[in-house]
Specification:
By secondary structure, the protein is mainly α. Helix content is 66%, strand content 0%.
């Protein structure tokens, strides 16, 4: 991936969230929060904060980031956005312990449009296996990236009339060829087994491209993409 192809969508959102224009900043901040709130929520829960209180902590973190101007000072050169958010939530929790918390957190502030319904159940299902806050954050960050890439691929295949192919072959994205009965799928789709194997290879390649593009949006330089990808795969391991 050349520098000209290095995507910066998420960093553009960060910069917009730190802009002086209040409405533009609020819209960008809401989008950032929608994408990254769950790994932060898992981090906070693993720090011993209850489910309802954790929602307020995450909302307060994002509100503080724009209120103090932290995002306005943040640039792409500082490194990985994942690392920035972990540091930010760690400091935010420390500050909350030093002052009166509770119901004052949202006073006079705009509540961000994040749907926390079902967050506790989702946390137990996806984030409950990691006791360490940072490991929980990294694991959920990786899962979020993968889920978004899969959803984007599904939409891409549906838009090009290949929705049925994606539905049959999406298992190849994680389980490889072993989980697919190519002969049976070929019969259902009225195509050849060889063509299906080629299609599965292309699907995996396209998934890898989308995943790397997503990661590229959250790191400072193109050469950081592969190390970040390696770290995220390790976070998904045992």
């Amino acid at each position: 991936m050349g520098r000209g192809e290095f995507l910066t969508t998420r960093w553009s959102l960060v910069e917009a969230a730190g802009a002086a224009d209040g409405e533009r900043a609020r819209a960008a901040l809401s989008e950032l929060c929608a994408e990254y709130w769950f790994p932060l929520y898992a981090y906070v829960r693993r720090c011993g904060v209850g489910a309802d209180e954790a929602q307020d902590v995450v909302q307060g973190l994002f509100a503080d980031l724009i209120g103090r101007g932290d995002l306005a000072r943040l640039t792409r050169g500082v490194g990985r956005f994942r690392g920035f958010l972990k540091t930010a939530v760690r400091h935010h929790l420390a500050n909350l312990r030093d002052r009166e918390r509770a119901e004052k957190r949202g006073g006079g502030r705009v509540r961000l449009a994040v749907d926390f319904e079902g967050a506790a159940e989702r946390f137990e299902r996806q984030g409950g296996r990691e006791a360490d806050p940072e490991r929980a954050f990294d694991r959920l960050w990786a899962l979020e990236l993968i889920e978004r890439c899969v959803a984007e691929l599904e939409a891409e295949y549906a838009a090009s009339g290949r929705g049925a192919v994606f539905a049959e072959l999406k298992g190849a994205l994680q389980g490889g060829d072993e989980g697919i009965d190519y002969a049976a799928v070929a019969e259902r789709l009225s195509t050849g087994e060889g063509a299906l194997r080629v299609a599965a290879h292309r699907l995996r390649k396209r998934f890898g491209e989308r995943l790397r593009a997503r990661i590229a949006e959250t790191v400072a330089r193109p050469e950081e993409v592969e190390p970040e990808l390696d770290e995220l795969f390790r976070a998904l391991g045992p």
